Amino acid sequence: MKTDPESFILENTDVLTPPHVPEIRLHLATEAHELWLKTEEELQEIGLPPPFWAFAWAGGQGLARYILDHPEVVRGRRVVDFASGSGLVAIAAMKAGAASVLAADIDPWAETAVRLNAALNDVTLSYTGDDITGRDLEAEVYLAGDVFYDKAFADRLKPWFSGLAASGASVIVGDPGRSYCPREMMTSLATYEVPVTRALEDSEVKRTTVWRFGTGVHDNRARISDDTPDLRSR
């Protein structure tokens, strides 16, 4: 790496609480920092991949909110937080009483972000930078916030998540209406109106649904996509 991740994160973020999960503190980028405005080319110059770890995405906020409000989902269980980013969902799971949480993300900067954010919240997490897609890590709960933003990626995740669920694991995802979210394969658990910044999304509030892989009764109110206007946010 051309830049030291810890120094860069500390210098280019503020310690904030995500609006939908005020119990948790994170190092996040704001409009006050240059990180918010850097182009992809500028990020490459300093050896920094797109800093997804620097923002509290709506899918992660909704999923973290659900876990904190329903701690029985993870209490005493082995948990994997896939595509962990900032570690928001992993931290929520530990706060809710998980026996252990493995945060997984292939972004080499996410490891430092997760470590710093876990320390902010006085929780201990494990971390892996391996691509765990397709693997059964023998966890009892798999969590994933906002992972259906790309068709090719979604096509890799659907059979993996379905297989984990069929083997008896709980696979729970948070999704803010991404176009490639496989709603027909899941059961809705809760829907939230999550405040976000318009610089990241197409509205100031994203209707975010928490889903469990496996068929059942669906909440039709959650059947929206990025192409469907959210009238309540206007």
Run of helices and strands: HEEHHEHEHEEHEEE
Structure classification? alpha/beta
User: Rough shape?
Assistant: globular
Strand content: 15-25%
Going across the biggest sheet, name each strand in turn.
5-4-3-6-7-9-8
The residue ranges in which pLDDT falls below 50 over 5 or more consecutive positions are: 217-234
Total count of strands: 9
Give the helices and strands, then pairings:
Blueprint: H1 5-12, E1 14-16, E2 26-28, H2 40-45, H3 58-69, E3 78-82, H4 88-95, E4 100-104, H5 110-120, E5 126-128, E6 141-145, H6 151-166, E7 170-175, E8 186-195, E9 205-213
Parallel strand pairs: 3-4, 3-6, 4-5, 6-7
Antiparallel strand pairs: 1-2, 7-9, 8-9
Helix pairs in contact: 3-4
Task: Report on the architecture of this protein.
The protein has 234 residues and is of the alpha/beta class. It is 26% helix and 21% strand. The protein contains six helices and nine strands, in the order H-E-E-H-H-E-H-E-H-E-E-H-E-E-E. The protein has helices at 5-12, 40-45, 58-69, 88-95, 110-120, 151-166, and strands at residues 14-16, 26-28, 78-82, 100-104, 126-128, 141-145, 170-175, 186-195, 205-213. A seven-stranded mixed β-sheet has the order 5-4-3-6-7-9-8, sandwiched between helices. Strands 1-2 form a two-stranded antiparallel sheet. Helix 3 (58-69) packs parallel to helix 4.
